[in-house]
Structures are given as structure tokens and as C-alpha cells.
């Protein structure tokens, strides 16, 4: 996990190394994904984040670029069972994914089934075995502050590398307050990814200053080519 000092960001282009350049739209075509990869190469984004069917395509397009290939598991609801999430993670790893963004079972968390939530994350972490980064999406817009803290701690205990705010497919996305809460909860050991509704450089910078190591956005090009914050 890379960490950068927020005070080293002088201009919007400096945000590129934080950005997971994202296209998770159901209607995304292979041409759309190839364009995403070309943009990621050009701007030196941290990664692309795509649906599982496009992992192999991205791996080919980004070979030698230094840009990671990320994909999603249990997306966007988190309500598939643990066996399905494990299978998805295995397939993504086989296809060349460097990073996995996995959605927790939000209903289990809200019901207090902490052992089940922890076990499911741990199963995926064990499948990855350090061969890919695991980011755990907790879907903050559906949780109380106590539930957010509990979700972050369960992810940490289960061996995740990052906690992530949102899928971007629910009623709200990342907030500075949630990023700050998540960073305070996990400490410096885990990454924090802010995602959902981040469309401009000023918002991205605010998330980083609050403690985010990564920014998930479909507006990466607009962000890094902005004239100012």
C-alpha cells in the first residue's frame, strides 16, 4: 500500500497517483474499457477499476504501464453468499486482477452478525493470499457511525488492505466526515478509499486531507486536467 503526503499535492495533476480510474457501468463496452485503459496510461493513474468480465482485457492493455487492474466482488449489493464471493475472487485473480474491491454483507452487519461478516472477508483475503490488494466496501450511506466503525474493525481483523466508503450505486457516496471516521478507526495500518460522487479536484483533495489513500472515480481525467482546485 502506497501512502503519499497530502501537502505534496500542488496541482490537480498530482492527484493521479491516488486515483482508481473507474468504469463499472453495466453498459460499458470493450471499446469504453480500452479508452479507460488508454487514459490511465496517459495520466499514470494508480489503477483502473472495472467489472470482472474486463479484467483480462485491461491486463493486456495495461501491460508494462505500472497501472494496476482492479475489479469488484459481490458488487454492488454485497448480498451474494460467501462461496460466490470466494469464486469471484479466485476468477479475478486467475484473470490477472491486482486489486479486489469486495462489498460486505450489509444486512449481516446491521443484524450484529459480526463473526459472519469477518469470516466472509477473511475467506476472500485468504484466497488472494497477498497476490492482490483487498479493499472492503462498507457502504457508509447505509450505516450508523457505530456500524461504520464496527465494519472497519472487522475488515482490519480479517486481513483487508483497505476499507472503502461506497459502491457508488447506492443513495449516497463518500463524505469527508466518513473518510475521517474510517481513518481514525483503522489507524495508519490500513488504506482508506473514498468513492462515490467525487467529480472534481477540490473534492478529491478534501478526501485525501481527511485520510484517504485512494480515490475511486469515473471523473479521473476531468480531475487531473483541471486548471486549479
Structure, explained:
By secondary structure, this protein is an alpha/beta fold. The chain has a single domain (13-193, 208-224), classed as Aldolase class I (TIM Barrel, Alpha-Beta Barrel). The protein has nine helices and eight strands. It has an eight-stranded parallel barrel with strand order 1-2-3-4-5-6-7-8, surrounded by seven helices. α3 (82-95) packs parallel to α5 (114-128) and α5 (114-128) packs parallel to α6. The chain is globular. The mean pLDDT is 96.
What are the main properties of this structure?
alpha/beta; eight-stranded parallel beta barrel; 229 residues; TIM Barrel; globular
Topology:
Elements: E1 19-23, H1 30-43, E2 47-50, H2 55-61, E3 68-73, H3 82-95, E4 99-103, H4 106-110, H5 114-128, E5 133-137, H6 145-158, E6 162-164, H7 176-186, E7 191-195, H8 201-210, E8 214-217, H9 220-224
Parallel strand pairs: 1-2, 1-8, 2-3, 3-4, 4-5, 5-6, 6-7, 7-8
Helix pairs in contact: 3-5, 5-6, 6-7
Averaged pLDDT: 96
Which class best fits the helix and strand makeup?
A: alpha/beta
The tally of strands reads 8
How many helical elements? 9
The CATH H-level homologous superfamily: Aldolase class I
CATH architecture, by name, is Alpha-Beta Barrel
Task: Give the structure's gist in a few sentences.
The chain is of the alpha/beta class. It contains nine helices and eight strands.
Amino acid at each position: 500500500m502506497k501512502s503519499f503526503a497530502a501537502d505534496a499535492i500542488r496541482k490537480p495533476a498530482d492527484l493521479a497517483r491516488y486515483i482508481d480510474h473507474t468504469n463499472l457501468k453495466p453498459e460499458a463496452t470493450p471499446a469504453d474499457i480500452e479508452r479507460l485503459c488508454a487514459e490511465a496510461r496517459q495520466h499514470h493513474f494508480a489503477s483502473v477499476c472495472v467489472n470482472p468480465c474486463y479484467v483480462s482485457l485491461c491486463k493486456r492493455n495495461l501491460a508494462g504501464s505500472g497501472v494496476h487492474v482492479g475489479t469488484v466482488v459481490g458488487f454492488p449489493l454485497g448480498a451474494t453468499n460467501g462461496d460466490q464471493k470466494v469464486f469471484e475472487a479466485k476468477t479475478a485473480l486467475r484473470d490477472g486482477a491486482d486489486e479486489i474491491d469486495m462489498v460486505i454483507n450489509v444486512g449481516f452487519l446491521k443484524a450484529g452478525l459480526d463473526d459472519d461478516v469477518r469470516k466472509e472477508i477473511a475467506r476472500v483475503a485468504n484466497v488472494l493470499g497477498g497476490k492482490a490488494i483487498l479493499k472492503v466496501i462498507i457502504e457508509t450511506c447505509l450505516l450508523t457511525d457505530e456500524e461504520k466503525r464496527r465494519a472497519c474493525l472487522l475488515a482490519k481483523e480479517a486481513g483487508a488492505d483497505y476499507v472503502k466508503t461506497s459502491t457508488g450505486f447506492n443513495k449516497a457516496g463518500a463524505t469527508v466526515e466518513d473518510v475521517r471516521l474510517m481513518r481514525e478507526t483503522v489507524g495508519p495500518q490500513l488504506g482508506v478509499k473514498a468513492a462515490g460522487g467525487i467529480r472534481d479536484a477540490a473534492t478529491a483533495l478534501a478526501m485525501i486531507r481527511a485520510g484517504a489513500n485512494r480515490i475511486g472515480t469515473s471523473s479521473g481525467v476531468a480531475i487531473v486536467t483541471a486548471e486549479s482546485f
